[in-house]
Every structure is written in structure tokens, then in C-alpha cells.
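User: Hey, quick favor. My workstation is busy. Could you predict this chain's structure for me?
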Amino acid sequence: MAVAGAQRKQVLKVLMISLLLDLVMTEHSFHCISFTFILPLFPSLLSFYRAQDPSPDSLLNRIFHYLNAYKNAFARPIDSRYDIVLLGGALGSLFSLLQAFAAPVIGHLSDKHGRRRALLTAMVGNILSVALWVSATDFRTFLASRIVGGLSEANVQLANAIVADVTDEARRGASMALVGACFSIAFTFGPMLGAGLSTVDVVAANPFMAAAAVSLALIFLETVYLWACLPETHPQFTSLEQESEPRADEKKAAEPPKKPQPGTGSNGQVTHTNNPALLNAVHFLFLLPFSGLEFSLPFITTTIYAGTTSASPAALNGRLLSMMGLIASLLQGTVVRRLPPLLTMRAGIVACALSFFCLARVDSVTGLYAAGALLAVTTATVVTSLNSLGSFEAREANRGAVMGRLRGWGQAGRAAGPVLFCTLFWWAGREAAFTIGGIAMSVVALLVFSLLKSPRCACEGRMMILYKIGIFYPQIVLTCFGGGIILWGLQVNVYGE
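Assistant: No problem, here it is.
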């Protein structure tokens, strides 16, 4: 049951302000920006730590030793300029792997002890993670900060669980899309803010302390704000007023025939519109190729721009990622939240398959940005829609666990995807790798179109859907076009030529 209107709006307001604090520089999810802070800093960070301890026996150089052994296994040589990109991808895979194990556990604990307590505990872990980054004068400490962050990052699933707690099924998709929009905005501006703070040199032993310290201060501020303003929302523990239900006779007259909902059937078994195991499998199979595509974008960008500009690869990748983030945030704020989640999910997966096939042959900047716009549609729709569909299949008593497992399976795909796709990329070549990726995403699309069903509350009449598509199609076109123009000018100023 949903929370009463005024209190529901207050809870959502607290979540949105918390996420908007992230836009000023905090860490992933509830603090999404400081995670994106690190993206443009990775090359400089790892180069700095390598210079700090050039010994062949240092942890970082031992990792590079194994990385070179991996590279030398291919018949095609891999340029040494990609070493940092490969290592950054390995660290990202480690973070996702830790999340795959931690997310279901934290989700279960939030069911047992409440969302608020679980979230504040996770925030303490995130504070510790960034505190380690502040003090990281060597690679061991920096790696420890990423491990602590991977084990304590629970904000994505808890944000979605809180939204599901306080909204009814009819409002849930729209509210989750707004949460997704905040994340997309973070990925739009986070790399720029991180790049700007990296130029502030406070301590010679840790030239990145300014970015880390600002991130730490804002995470602490956000934690205090959540402690003071966020109430408990778990139905079993909350004191929030529940929205009153209509009388039985009114409810019966107003409702259409019911479709299977999560609950107990006549035979004592739980019934679902979409089995959570199926949603978990789709999340894993989607992120497996999609994360590999994300990881390979720097290789493609560097190749396409080779010899045509003096801008650094980090600046070129920053422009593309920020354009994608802006388009995704605008789509989530205007279009995605108004359409049924299954419809938007199907559109996003088709856009991703098209992007794979496009990137298999693209050889121009225009083609690269066109593929990036398709990926922005995917970013805006698929995971947000999966979270919405997953929330419909969870009961009040196990919502955190169900959504934690959904995230965990997705993170498992995100951990394995870069390794598998990079191997395919350098073994078979770009065209073959992206063509295979496109075929894999087409298989995912076939599964989604044939097996997933729209929950009753999320169903729309066919004419209403067509009407909404007609209304918002111009917004989609204008968003993609305008977002590219805005970000091009913005990134030139921030990253330089």
C-alpha cells in the first residue's frame, strides 16, 4: 500500500535532494558523482601511483605484469597506451563483482532491520571508502578504498526499494525514472567536476586530495541530511500514514479483471506476472554485452580521432559520456516516466542492438555520436524499467531481498562483461566483436519481447500508448539533437582542445 500523499512527496523530496547533492560531487548512487569523479582521474591516478613505487615487486607493477601476460596472449598486439584503460576496467569489474555478492545481503538486511538503518549503515561504509581515498598515497590504500566502496555500496537498490515502499504500482515507474534521471545527470557532470578538481594541488604526496576531500565532505553532509530527514519506509516498521483504500464495492466496480500478482495462489504457491528469476536472468544477459560495449568505447574513440585532434583521449571520451548522460537524464525526466516500463525497456534494448551493429562499422565522429545517442536511450530506459518490473514482483516483506538479487545479478554481468568483450575485441577484431555483441543483444530483445509481460497496473490501452508516443516522439528527437549541441560546447570549455 502507498504512503499518504503529503508524506510520500516528502520522502521522495528527501531522496531527490540527496541525489542532487551528488551533482555537487558525492559518490555513486545516492552519491553518484564522486564515483564518476574518478573516471577521468584514473589515468593520472594510476600513473601517479606507478611513479610513486616503481619497484617491480610493487602491487601495481605486479598487476601490470599479469596484464601484459594477458595482452601477449593475443596474436594482435595491444598498444601500451591502453594499459591504464584495461586496468581501470579491471578495477571496475572488481567493484561490480563485490556488488554482486553484497547487494542481495544488504537487501535482505533492509527487510529485516528497515531501509533507513541499512541505508545509514551503507553511508558509513561509503564515508570510510572515501576517507581511504583521501589518505591514499599509495596504490594499496587506493585499492582498499575501492574494495570497501564495493562492499558497502547499497544506495541504488535501497533508493528503488524506498520508492517502491512509498508509491503505489501506478506511480512507481514514474518515480523510479526520476531517480534514474538524477543518476544520469551525475554521469553528465561528474567527470567534468572531477577533471576540474584534479588541477587543485593541495598535498604533493596525494595530488588528488582536493577531489577526495570535497567528496568526503559532501558525503558526510548527505549522511547527516538523510539521518535527520529520511523516515523509515519499510511497511513493517514505518510510522508513516498509509493511503486509505476505497470501499470494497467501489474498488470492485473500478478495477478491471485482475491479472496474476505477486502473492499466494489457491495452491499455496507465490504467483508472479514476471518471475523474479527471469528478470534476474534478463538483467545479467543484458549487462553482460552492454558493459563490454561501455568498456570498449575509449578504444573506438581513440581510433576514430587518431591524428585528427590534439585533445587528449580522456577529453574525447568525456565529451561522449557527458553527451550520453545529458540525453539519458532528459529522456528519463520527460519521456520514460510517462510510459509503461516494459515498453521503454523494449525500446532501450532495440536501441542497444542497433548501437552494437553501428559501432561494428563506424569510422567517423558523426557515426560515433549517433551510436552514443542510441546508447543514451538504452541507459535511460532498460535498468530503470527492470527495477520497476522487479518491484511489482516483490511483496512488502521481501522487497529489499528481491531487488537486491536483481541488482546482484546485473552486477555479476557487469563484472564479467568487460573481460569477455575485451578478449573478443582483441582476438577477433572490432567488427566481429560488435557484430557478435549485436547478435547477443538481439537474443536478449527476443527474450524480452516473447517472455516478459506488462503488470496489470502498468498496462495502458493500445491507443493511449500510441497517443503518448505521438506526443513524446518530438521530445525524443529534440532531446538527442539539443543534448549533443549543448554538450559539445560545454565539453570544449571544460576539457579543452
